[in-house]
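---------- Forwarded message ----------

FYI, see the Ceramide glucosyltransferase record below. Original note from H. follows.
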Amino acid sequence: MDLVLATLAIALLAINLFSIAVAGLRLSHRDKASDKPAVIKPDGVSIVIPVRGIEAYSSLTLAHAFKLEWPDYELIFCVQDEGDPIIAEIRSAIAAHPAVPARLLIGDDRISANPKLNNCAKGWHAARHEWVVLADSNVLMPKDYIQNLVSGWRADTGLVCSTPIGSRPDGFWAEVECAFLNTLQARWQYVGEALGLGFAQGKSMLWHKPFLDAAGGIQALAAEIAEDAASTKLVNRHGKKVHLVSAPFEQPLGRRGLEEIWSRQTRWARLRRVTFPLFFTPEILLGALPPLALGLIAAVLLDLNSAAVAATVFAATYLPELALARAKGWRLSILSLPAMMMRDVMLPAIWIRSWLSGSFEWRGNAMTIGTQESQLTGSSPA
């Protein structure tokens, strides 16, 4: 038993190192993101951006959307509520950049229990171009945003996506969110893609509109409780694959608190659990705690130095992760290591919470996820 536990601990550390190596090879540094030659050459691109409320970096992300280096693109901002304060900022940004075709659409098309998808629907139908990007409002688009998405398209592609990379954190808990988003979640998404198991990410999704329209249109993305899960299954069902950009786009975070991080991470975990349970279940083995626990038990049974075992586990887990962040130009600070450790302490609790039903608020909408996928319900506030 002692050797079995030691072997399992070593295997988990080896898998962790493997994942970092794969992500390191697959990912490009930000300034080399769009060097890859493109398979497709869209004449025009429509960018549909669902927006709700004013966020810490709304002005910055709005400004970046109007400064993309692409000859022909349009921006379609979608807002559900005509009383939303973000409308004034969007109109001001549109007026300040008359050279960029941009529209603001207001209204709520109830095609699903997913408020984001409902908000996107009107923009999808209004898009002028055959290539459409569905982009979250908190994505900080670089000038080569479209080039990077386009360069990710391959012969077998049905969808190109980008994971969010946390940046500009304010405070420790925002650093923890960077640790979740960057060297954990983004890393494993790239590993999945490298193994032929690409999963869509709703932050930025490049679609060929005729393909999705022939598959049922944007309404088809209501087949799952999250549009990215529905996108993954739709693309795979049609014999195509989801691919990721070579360098993910930033999501500026600003201030974050523990309650906010917990709410967001448990929500995402529950969505992953109900949409891809076989892939979600092994997530309990992620982080430093599983190999640490196995290693310490084995150390006691084999009469080894427990402190040395713990130091080995921490070094094998966190040093490569820190090196990955540095190599790719992601957020790295004096708080990064303690943030990664706090993230790993939270991971088992998040995993356990994901198996329990419960309600949460998603962008002002009350949502409930039960123990079965069919138990999702949603309602907007009055």
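H. also flagged this: The longest strand covers residues 45-51.
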